[in-house]
Amino acid sequence: MIYTSDLTEKNAAMCVAELMSAAARTAPKACGVDLLKTIILDGEDKDRLTAAMREISSEIGKPFFTRDAGNVDACHCIILIGAEVKPRNLNCGLCGIPNCAAAGSTNISCAMSVNDLGIATGSAAAVAMDNRIDNRILFSAGMAALRLKLFPEEIKMCFGIGLATTGKNVFFDRPAVS
To answer: What are the φ and ψ backbone dihedral angles of 107, each rounded to 5 degrees?
Structure first.
């Protein structure tokens, strides 16, 4: 049997996306509380995501959402990492509210959830890098995923990481847009 580069490179990206999901899961979490979820999209589901990114771009007047959507179009797949924002009862005040009980009655995000999402996203991106798969962390893709309600409603923050195996990195030499 002959395996062409088109097939093997897409399979490699999907395999690495699964490893990235595991890396996000096993990344350290504040107080040992795991409030993360991951999703991997390709095909029509990825197309729905990029369409939502373009809609957001038009609505808020931020052209980089359209640029990012084009980058995701060129990817084999995208992994989405989402987090709940529940306070951990540390009363650390890092969210700007003096204690967790007071923070719970606001729409403010727990700093520990923000930190957990960042660590998980970094761990996942490191797996892509270790496997020489071109990638980029995109909050624009995360916003679109939340808009599409791809996660359960308790997930309030999300980042996406597009994965591509092309002769030229699709995320390099991107035009600077605001």
So the answer is: -95, 15
